[in-house]
Structures are given as structure tokens and as C-alpha cells.
């Protein structure tokens, strides 16, 4: 995909209900022609079972992010309160920083980053998005999410 000049925004790979099969969730941004080309490339790979464009229907997506935020005695309570309002979990509290675990869709992750940035983000680790189609359809989305 990268060899063809397409950028992967997010890539997550993991075991499925069948331990002999892995699922890849690839997030790419592009027009219909670009997505069609990427799907064709993926379908040419011998080990690929199926490619599904989840944005053609309703889907659920989540990402896990751990973020270390700078704090002092004055801002620690504020940052921890902000984490609570985001329904995030505070995983570690230190003298100079707190580590917050945030799980959510792309909008929630983006909002959390916007709210935490003024305090001073020291470190971020993200898993990449994973997604499943909803049983009830349809909807639309901006970024394309491919389940492989």
C-alpha cells in the first residue's frame, strides 16, 4: 500500500475467534477510487480471506490511548477531574505526571487530546482503531475503515 503512495492512518492486527486467523483493521483516507485500488491490492494477497469496507454501512470503532500529562500540585486535581468527565481511567499518578487510559471512537480520542494539550502532554501511546460492522445498517463516515 505504501509502495503505491497511499498512507495508512492506522493499522491494528489481532487474533480472532479462530486462533488460526488474524483480523487487520486498516484506516486510510482517500476517495472512492483510492479505496477501490487499495481493496484490489489487498485482495491480490494470497493470505487475505476477505476485504470489507466498513464505511459502506454502520460500524463500531474503538481505540485505546495512554497519555502521560504533566501536572503539579495545583493542576493534578483538574487533570484527574477531566479524566473522570471523559470516562477515562487514571492508571498512574506521580509527582510530575499522571497517565490516563482513554478508550473511545475517533471523536472521543480527538476531544481528549484537545482538552489535555494545554496541560502539557509528555507522552502518547495509541493502539490504532479496531472496528466491527453493526448488525443494524446504514450510516456514513469520512475516513475509510477496511477490515481484512
What does this structure look like?
By secondary structure, this protein is of the alpha+beta class. Helix content is 23%, strand content 38%. The chain is built from 3 helices and 9 strands; from the N terminus they run E-E-H-E-E-H-E-E-H-E-E-E. The strands form 2 sheets. Strands 4, 5, 6, 7 and 8 form a 5-stranded antiparallel beta sheet that branches. The relative contact order is 0.26.
Brief overview, please?
With 148 residues, this protein is an alpha+beta fold. Helix content is 23%, strand content 38%.
How is the secondary structure organized here?
Layout: E1 8-15, E2 22-28, H1 32-44, E3 52-53, E4 59-70, H2 76-85, E5 89-93, E6 97-104, H3 106-116, E7 121-126, E8 130-133, E9 144-147
Antiparallel strand pairs: 1-2, 2-9, 3-9, 4-6, 4-7, 4-8, 5-6
What characteristics describe this protein?
about 150 residues; alpha+beta; five-stranded antiparallel beta sheet; four-stranded antiparallel beta sheet; 3 helices
